[in-house]
Amino acid sequence: MIATTAVGSLVLAGLFLLYAAAALIRHLARHDPRWLESGRRATQTAWLLVSLALVMFLYLIFQNRVEFVAVYRVTRSTLPLAVKISALWGGQTGSLFFWTWLLVGVSFVGACLPWKNADAEKPWLLLFLILPFVSYLLLVLFLENPFARWWMLPGGDTLTRVFSPGAGAVVFYPREGAGLNPLLRHPAMIIHPPMLYLGYVLFALPNAVGMALLVTRRRQAALFETLRVSSLVGWFFLTLGLVLGSRWAYDVLGWGGYWGWDPVEIAGLLPWLSSSALLHLFSLHGKRRNIQAWMLALVLLTFNLVILGSFLTRSGMVASVHAFAESSVGTALLALLTLFTVLSLAIWLWRGRPGLQDGTRSKNPFWRAILLSTAGVFGLVLVVCLVGLAVPIISESLTGQAMLVSARYYRQATLPLWLLLLILAAAAPFYPQRVLITRQTLAAFIPGLAAGLAAALISFWVFSLPWLEMLIVFLCAFFAASSLAVALRDHHDRNLIENRTGTRGGMRISRRAASTVLHAGVFLFALGVLGMEGHQLVGQDSVAVGERVDVPGYSIRLDALEQSTTEEEHLRTTAVLSLFREEPEGTQLIEVLAPYIDEDPGYAQRTAVPGVSSHLIGDIYALLTGIAVGNRPEASLRLLVNPLAGFLWLGGLVMAAGALLFLAPHVFQSTTVKRREATQDAVAGLPPDSWKA
Amino acid sequence: MSRRFPWKLIVGTAIILMALAVLILPSLQSGAQYYLTVEELLQDPARYQQETVRISGAVIGDSIVWDGAAGLLFFTIASVPAEREQIEAAGGFEASLRQAVADPDRARIDVQIASPPPDLLQGEVQAILTGRLGADGIFNADELLLKCPSRYQDDQP
Q: What is the pLDDT of residue A93?
């Protein structure tokens, strides 16, 4: 009964969306607002129906109804509750269903928003929202139905169908579910997919707005503002999702690395790159036709890259730890991708492409150059990644011999580009100062330069860093000192304004503050990369109880090997280790670590979970890789020292926080309207070359 | 306004293309690898001793040996066809892996890698290895990627 209701709900949702599309088209033909309203309501109802089906699916998971194939593959009765929630996105079927629900949710949001002064665009944008959603819903219904069950035929064979195949078949109830892949049972795995998926699907909204703007050709300023806000929100979730995924890999995949240039990781990075480029273009206050054309191109590109990502992950075409099984969804997604790419390209070329001439002179050519260069460099990284992904496909068709690229290709090709981005980011504190060489800018530039040089010299003399790392340290220190100087000046100016207008306090968060926080996150992340790439130490050995494994500066001593059975009936072997640091005064005990190996009989698989000692200056990571039993039990241990690893996660989170700060003025807008009028008068009275925050 | 020759566009495009060429081509040289089956590798061993290649095959479970003291992992992989038609003819990916391990006439190669056994390493799993063929016929791997068996479509509960 549940299967019928749920599937019926999904089918009904699909029908509502198709009706909505028809109603919107009719509105466009007849200009009758009642059809628009009808279409809008149908879209909202569709999401409610999909939500109903999702709730039923969750119910099936929690009730351990393993006769449903999708439930069987990802759950077991012994799983704890929190892990069961993440079972929703633990397999191909569930995750596609979750993705579709989120996508239809975005259309719900689109249908609920008022879209003031956008009457011409509204039907188009709803149409362009419905188009991908109907496609994914059809995929879910016909190719990866979450409500398919096991059926046993009279002959003893089992097969999977949504409804009874007839001929005397009965529902088959397996004794126990397969359980969730042990690698997925990690806190980051509980939030990484939802954050990442949210980031992906949220770009459907700017995509629809962008397409609508291209069709109506109206260049509505309010809609560009919506583009900016929705892209920021999408970027926020993408950044969080990528950072969490990186953290999961670091903890769980046992190699202490944070980014493997795995094709699926790259597929997730691509929309992040194009949206980062896009966000920098928004700072150009693009009323100018050409900038707007490129902005719209990036908006459309980002969503197409999202679909490309879902295709690469689910088609089984790429060899990756992430790739889901090869399934029929792959072909369908390829068709969808082709359709969208052709449609987006056609509309952009027909209605929105930039002219060859530039038009009027820019008022601020320096910042225009910097921001365009930043967007351009992100674009170059994007092209490098796309080439890397395309090599297997192209090489096989051209030479008949399959080739692919290793992580080395990506590292080598993108390193100069990341450095260039870091250099450009160091200019962020000075934006948007129009006159470059004034007393005020020098008041920030000189401390920055001094701090940068000091840090570089210290890193050379004390730490003997290579020149590349010295450059990064220089840029970080420069950014930190100049941001501080600018912030102090801003604070001083704000006090001046408040004294003159008589207003106090308030939560007005300037764009400069938001930009500083966001780019501070970038520099923190860069420091984390510096530590991990340049200074990671690895030690490995097979030791008996009482013996040690050493790396320069640290050692671990095996104190005991313990065996136990977990509540999920796994056999667990734990190595109790003492972690020591070599100090000039002697060896210092830092912490006791307990890495272990879990043997999961259901999955016939072992999971090694590391013991980690985390500090701001770095992580120490101890892994139990094997046990040799015998007269003298030995444990194979691997010791990793990862300097500045914490900066990676901190940097990522600070970047995301910066994005939130960019959104904050929207939250506090109404309260600052009165202050703004007063502020403008006061600002007019300030000296001409001061910061205008 | 008359249309002047679009110098900026041409120069800009040229710079971008040059930058891409400078970045991508040398990196492709050092980073691109042949992706071979075990059978293809063994057909021309002399050639593949000179360069880093990527091979894939099915892990033979009984062959997995971990030498903790030396930090070396040894196992044997059997050749699995790369063509989709052949895989489908065998009955799907998981079936083709199983057949590769069970078939005594299938081309096999011994692998050695300085890494502790990954959690996914077990029999009938697809292993994707990057490395070089040694003169002694053992494949010295630098990187090992395993495709998780639970990801395969499992139609039998």
A: 85
A320, A409, A540 member nearest B71 (Cβ): A540
Q: Which of B27, B120, B143 lies nearest to residue A409, judging by beta carbons? A: B27
Task: Give the residue, A376 or A507, on which the prediction is more confident.
Answer: A376
Q: What is the mean pLDDT of residues A188-216?
A: 88
Chain A: closest CA distance from residue B75 (Å): 15
With contact defined as beta carbons under 8 Å apart, do A216 and A120 qualify? yes
User: Do the chains contact at A380 and B19, CB–CB below 8 Å?
Assistant: yes
User: Which residue in A205, A210, A275 sits closest to A238, CA to CA?
Assistant: A275
Structure tokens at A676: 């703004």
**pLDDT digits (tens), chain B, 157 positions:** 445 677 877 888 898 899 899 988 888 888 788 888 888 888 888 888 878 888 888 899 888 888 877 778 899 999 888 776 777 777 777 788 888 888 888 889 999 998 777 777 888 888 888 888 988 889 999 888 877 554 444 445 4
Question: Min CA distance, A469 vs chain B (Å)?
Answer: 20
Q: Searching chain A, which residue's CA lies closest to the CA of residue B36?
A: A402
Spatial neighbors of A553 by CB under 8 A, at least 6 apart, are: A537, A581, A582, A641
Judge whether A173 and A71 are in contact, CB under 8 Å.
Answer: no
Yes or no: say if A150 and A171 are a contact pair by the CB < 8 Å rule.
yes
Mutate to test the interface with B, among A540, A571, A624, A629 (most CBs of B within 10 A): A540
Task: Record the tokens describing residue A206, joined without a space.
Answer: 């700017």
Indicate the range of A176-180, A583-587, A662-666 predicted with least confidence: A176-180
Best B9, B35, B73 member to test A by mutation, with max A CBs in 10 Å, is: B35
pLDDT tier at A671 (50, 70, 90 boundaries)? Answer: very low
What's the CATH number for B34-152?
A: 2.40.50.140
- Count of residues making up chain B: 157
Nearest to B24 among A178, A402, A413 (CB): A413
Q: Taking each helix axis from N to C terminus, what angle separates A221-252 and A204-216, rounded to the nearest 10 degrees?
A: 150
Residues of chain B neighbouring A357 (CB-CB closer than 8 A) = 1, 3-4, 6
Partners of residue B151 in chain A, C-beta under 8 Å: 92, 323-325
In the prediction, which pLDDT does B63 show?
Answer: 87
pLDDT above 90: residue A476: yes
Contact A626 B117 (CB under 8 A): yes
Q: CA-to-CA distance for A624 and A619, rounded, in angstroms?
A: 16
CB contact under 8 A, A357 and B1: yes
CB within 8 Å: B30 and A380: no
Beta-carbon separation of A325 and B120 below 8 A: no
Residues of B in contact with A376 (CB under 8 A): 16
**Could you write out the DSSP letters of every residue in B92-144?**
SHHHHHHHHHH-TTS-EEEEEESSPPPTT--TT-EEEEEEEE-TTS-EEEEEE
Q: Which residues of chain B have a CB within 8 Å of the CB of A635? A: 68
ipTM over 0.95 threshold: no
Q: What are the residue boundaries of the structural domains of chain B, listed by start? A: 34-152
Region of poorest pLDDT, from A182-186, A427-431, B7-11: A182-186
A616-620 long-range contacts, CB within 8 A, separation 24+: A616/A646, A616/A647, A617/A643, A617/A644, A617/A646, A618/A531, A618/A642, A618/A643, A618/A644, A618/A645, A618/A646, A619/A645, A619/A646, A620/A554, A620/A579, A620/A590, A620/A593
Whether B34 sits inside 8 A of A158 (CB atoms) is no
Chain B residue nearest residue A324, CA to CA: B151
Model's pTM, two decimal places?
Answer: 0.87
